[in-house]
UniProtKB/TrEMBL annotation:
<keyword id="KW-0479">Metal-binding</keyword>
<feature type="binding site">
    <location>
        <position position="224"/>
    </location>
    <ligand>
        <name>a divalent metal cation</name>
    </ligand>
</feature>
<feature type="binding site">
    <location>
        <position position="220"/>
    </location>
    <ligand>
        <name>a divalent metal cation</name>
    </ligand>
</feature>
<comment type="similarity">
    <text>Belongs to the GTP cyclohydrolase I type 2/NIF3 family.</text>
</comment>
<dbReference type="InterPro" id="IPR002678">
    <property type="entry name" value="DUF34/NIF3"/>
</dbReference>
<dbReference type="Pfam" id="PF01784">
    <property type="entry name" value="DUF34_NIF3"/>
</dbReference>
<feature type="binding site">
    <location>
        <position position="103"/>
    </location>
    <ligand>
        <name>a divalent metal cation</name>
    </ligand>
</feature>
<dbReference type="GO" id="GO:0005737">
    <property type="term" value="C:cytoplasm"/>
</dbReference>
<feature type="binding site">
    <location>
        <position position="65"/>
    </location>
    <ligand>
        <name>a divalent metal cation</name>
    </ligand>
</feature>
<feature type="binding site">
    <location>
        <position position="66"/>
    </location>
    <ligand>
        <name>a divalent metal cation</name>
    </ligand>
</feature>
<protein>
    <recommendedName>
        <fullName>GTP cyclohydrolase 1 type 2 homolog</fullName>
    </recommendedName>
</protein>
<dbReference type="GO" id="GO:0046872">
    <property type="term" value="F:metal ion binding"/>
</dbReference>
<dbReference type="InterPro" id="IPR036069">
    <property type="entry name" value="DUF34/NIF3_sf"/>
</dbReference>
Length: 252
């Protein structure tokens, strides 16, 4: 079955509430391709490798979390940007991208989806008075050691996480997928035993160690694979489309 590209975009916009969210990039249709859609390819980042794989899969739309045209970047279409855009335009392939709307969504959002993967019970936003906070806080059904929880992360995400191990058992967890290490102090104020994100900064180690909590950096790419898949599945069910998730490995 095929539907109009505009119909797909309108539903994604409505479902995610993208127009209400301020972001560092344009959300929605970033590059327009053929007017009809029957197959969607999803991935974390609109890299050249993903675009080439989407072309090989005969996709009509590439749907990603990390798209293009970020605030402050060089707007000139040269080098890497030229090669990516040329691949899209030459193959009449649309690019649909959602950044913060895909982090925040209560059903298909990266943070909610990661919690489901890791069996974390979601309790609410990391900042209770700010429901638009990207990060979440929750709990485990049974307390476990930080090392055992890190093993769970390793098994689920398929990569060895960086662990700063504290002394306390882990019951209450704060997390933010991707580059959310800056929320660690907010997580500490929320009374967590462990904070989980994708990346780490030099000062993150000291914040965890000196405040007596554990910290896990499980990879920016690895922690943000699940939201875009869930959104792709939703759209595929809604419109009887074909959906294929393509994971282009990224160690960061």
């Amino acid at each position: 079955m095929a539907i109009a590209l505009n119909t797909l975009v309108d539903e994604a916009e409505r479902y995610l509430g993208a127009a209400r969210i301020q972001d560092y990039c344009p959300n929605g249709l970033q590059v327009e391709g053929r007017p009809q859609v029957s197959r969607i390819v999803t991935g974390v980042t609109a890299s050249l490798a993903l675009l080439e794989a989407a072309v090989a899969a005969d996709a009509d739309v590439v749907l990603v979390h990390h798209g293009y045209f970020w605030k402050g970047e060089n707007p000139c279409v040269v080098g890497m940007k030229h090669r990516r855009l040329k691949t899209l335009l030459a193959n009449d392939l649309s690019l649909l991208a959602y950044h913060l709307p895909l982090d925040l969504h209560p059903e298909v959002g990266n943070n909610v989806q990661l919690a489901r993967q890791l069996d974390i019970i979601v309790e609410g936003p990391l900042e209770p008075d700010n429901p638009r906070t990207v990060g979440l806080v929750g709990s485990l059904a049974e307390p476990m050691s930080a090392r055992d929880f890190a093993r769970r992360v390793h098994e689920v995400l398929g990569r060895e996480p960086l662990l700063v191990e504290g002394d306390r058992m882990v019951s209450r967890i704060g997390w933010c997928t991707g580059g959310g290490q800056g929320y660690i102090d907010t997580a500490i104020a929320a009374g967590v035993d462990l904070y989980l994100t994708g990346e780490a900064s030099e000062q993150t180690f000291h914040s965890a160690r000196e405040n007596g909590i554990s910290f896990i950096a499980a990879g920016h790419h690895a922690t943000e694979r699940y939201g875009v898949q869930a959104l792709g599945d939703y759209l595929a069910r809604r419109f009887a489309l074909e959906h294929l998730f393509i994971d282009c490995p990224n160690p960061v």
